[in-house]
UniProtKB/TrEMBL annotation:
Protein keywords: Signal
Organism: Autumnicola edwardsiae
Signal sequence extent: 1-19
Residue stretches making up the Lipid/polyisoprenoid-binding YceI-like domain: 77-189
Sequence intervals crossing the membrane: none
Protein name, as recorded: YceI family protein
UniProt-listed Pfam families: YceI (PF04264)
Length: 192
């Protein structure tokens, strides 16, 4: 009888521990005040491709777990950016940008949030998978945030386009060349 009672207690405590470590669910809204820009540079001048936030879905389910002090892991936290939503300021630059990211074949850029590691209050390192033109790479970069009913999350993610097997277009017989490093600058305003 003692063994049966011991087994029941162990099962109860394991179920309790599992419940403590299970993923929590939450829905967040990305508000229209949010901004996302991809900035690139050529040997002549820089260019900005601004994302129209109207292309985002309004609500995102978040599945997360706090599994260590200061560390939050996420499951299926994917921000899908429709490549049609980017405007680089002129049709020729738009065409070059879409050719670079192969938007006809790959119409979305995916940013999957994997983990946030708190560094100090208001600052964390985000671990994300970025998928561009069918190639996925993991990146870690710093973000700044404020918490509350309305949260602000901002950061700059530096990427090397060669990591995504992208070939920048060359203009004027190779005299104008896009540099390999681009940055994704974002300021997300999120309602919890």
């Amino acid at each position: 009888m003692k063994n049966v009672l011991l087994i029941i207690m162990l099962l109860f405590f394991s179920a309790f521990t599992y419940a403590q470590n299970s993923f929590q669910n939450k829905t967040v809204k990305i508000l229209p005040k949010s901004e996302l820009t991809i900035t690139g540079d050529t040997n002549i001048k820089s260019f900005d491709c601004v994302f129209d936030m109207g292309y985002l879905q309004k609500e995102y389910p978040l599945h997360y777990i706090i599994d260590a002090p200061g560390r939050m892991r996420f499951k299926n936290a994917i921000l899908s950016l429709d490549t049609k939503g980017f405007d680089c300021g002129s049709q020729p630059i738009n065409n070059d940008f879409h050719k670079l990211i192969q938007s006809e074949k790959y119409p979305q850029i995916l940013i999957e949030l994997l983990e946030m590691r708190l560094q100090k209050p208001g600052f964390a390192n985000a671990v994300v998978n970025i998928t561009i033109a069918g190639t996925r790479k993991e990146h870690t970069f710093p973000v700044e945030f404020t918490e509350g009913g309305i949260s602000n999350i901002k950061g700059i993610l530096l990427l090397d386009i060669k990591d995504f097997k992208l070939k920048p277009p060359k203009k004027l017989f190779g005299m104008i060349v896009v540099k390999d490093e681009i940055e994704i600058d974002f300021k997300l305003v999120v309602q919890n």
